[in-house]
Amino acid sequence: MDINENFMKFAFREAERAYEEKETPIGCVIVFENKIIAKSHNQIETLKDPTAHAEILAITSASAYLDSKVLKGCSMYVTLEPCAMCAGAIILSKIDNLFFGAFDPKSGACGSVINITNNKSLNHKVKVLGGILDTECGGILKSFFKGKK
Description:
The chain has 149 residues and is α/β, with parallel strands linked by helices. The chain has helices at residues 3-20, 44-47, 54-66, 84-93, 134-148, and strands spanning 27-32, 35-41, 74-80, 97-102, 127-130. The longest helix is centred in the first third of the chain and has 18 residues, at 3-20.
């Protein structure tokens, strides 16, 4: 197993926590110097906050850990391709690398529907790699939404 799969497994554990809490199962970890410095999962229902996505909560936590609004040198691992809001936050925080699990053909903003993370008009570019453990990451989402019908 490579290092990206290893860190994605930690993000997947966060997605499982979200699933158990009846939240959309998306998990995220942020890594700095090969150490997880932040982890989170979706808490939209729990916090009654539409911005409480795993990525936003993890960015807030990583910023507190590093005592900086700039997350240079950090990599984000998230189980689903980030939406436009989260992709914007990734740009603003200047995260270097984004690794995600499942592609999101409906609202993915890192290449699927639009590409915010590598928009030539923005002042920061993010190295992006999707499809890491995509079967597992997509599977938990399918299972969650199948139970919602």
